[in-house]
Design goal:
Elements lengths: L1 H38 L5 H9 L3 H24 L1 H9 L7 H29 L9 H14 L15 H17 L3 H8 L5 H27 L9 H35 L1 H6 L8 H17 L13
Helix pairs in contact: 1-3, 1-9, 4-9, 5-6, 7-10, 7-12, 9-10
Protein name: Vegetative cell wall protein gp1
Organism: Frankia nepalensis
Keywords: Membrane, Transmembrane, Transmembrane helix
């Protein structure tokens, strides 16, 4: 029994190390390519490989093991930086950047308010009163504005905007459970997570891992610019990859993670009421009020005599 357990743990650990080591391996291979370019070509590697071939098996194994451990260690180190890096990309910056942060957040809020007016016009055109029917262009305009609307908090709440598009995508996902159900996503999430089905939890973990990988790819790309003394091509290559991940990969993966987070509340929020023995809502309006009360109860507790807990199941 314990043997099977440790075998499973070892397999998971190996998979995790392999996942974080692959980007490191690509980085160091790219660095090796820059060095060989600087040294004159691939034929310069033969001097080092010839030296290694002349060594004993023990020395060869030690050299290879040292290289693999170095690659793995660098991969783990950069992987540990994924969460703080992602928070920086979201716009959670030091206090001394507050003037810039507030200015950028205000700009995003102002743009969202302008787009909200356009969205209302597009909505009226896309869903007219029968028997009128919308045109293909009107539906396309509405869909485009609806997608952009979901990438930031509601325009009516400018105080919730962050200074970066990535931050606003994730902040919008955090706000939607509160706006729809009265549930604060941050407070309720640690209680809802253990109740979710395994398939949904695995999907959420995979989406978060994909988001972290995109963030660390940005860091790897910026670090690749350090090979500029070997070849100036390192700078445009590194900056191009970093720009693509910042503007395309990370926002797309943040949106996917946010959609899954919202879906978890859409389909499984009733589990919170059931397991906390809180009376379930009777209608959408009641649900919003019950959600706010439940959030407050989870945050601070209560000594009130209402509501009456439901019988345990």
């Amino acid at each position: 029994m314990l043997g099977s357990f440790w075998e499973a743990v070892g397999n998971k650990l190996a998979d995790r190390v392999a996942a974080v080591s692959l980007p490191a391996l690509i980085f160091w291979l790219a660095g090796l390519a820059a060095w060989t370019w600087h040294a004159g070509g691939l034929h310069t590697l033969t001097r080092h490989t010839d030296w290694l071939n002349k060594q004993t098996g023990l020395v060869q194994g030690a050299v290879i093991l040292t290289a693999l451990l170095s690659i793995g260690a660098s991969g783990i180190l950069i992987h540990q930086a994924a969460t703080p890096l992602l928070r920086l990309l979201e716009g959670y910056w030091p206090a001394w950047t507050n003037p810039l942060r507030h200015r950028l957040a205000t700009r995003h809020a102002t743009r969202a308010a302008t787009e909200e007016t356009a969205w209302q016009t597009a909505y009226a055109a896309a869903f007219p009163t029968p028997p009128a029917t919308p045109s293909v262009e009107q539906i396309a305009t509405y869909n485009r504005l609806e997608q952009r609307r979901r990438r930031h908090p509601p325009a009516a709440t400018p105080g919730y905007f962050l200074p970066t598009p990535i931050g606003n995508i994730l902040r919008a996902a955090e706000r939607r459970p509160h706006d729809k159900y009265g549930l604060d996503a941050i407070i309720c999430w640690p209680r809802l997570w253990p109740l979710l089905p395994d398939t949904l939890r695995q999907d959420l973990l995979a989406a978060r891992a994909s988001l972290d990988t995109a963030a660390t790819t940005t860091l790897w790309a910026l670090l690749y610019c350090a090979f500029a003394p070997l070849t100036l091509w390192a700078i445009p290559i590194g900056l191009t990859i970093a720009t693509l991940t910042l503007t395309l990969a990370i926002p797309t993966r943040a949106q996917a993670f946010g959609d899954l987070l919202e879906a978890a509340y859409d389909t499984h929020r009733a589990l919170l009421y059931t397991h906390l023995r809180w009376p379930p809502p009777t209608d959408p309006q009641d649900e919003h009020e019950q959600g706010r009360q439940l959030t407050t109860y989870l945050l601070r507790g209560s000594d009130n005599t209402t509501p009456t807990f439901t019988p345990p199941t």
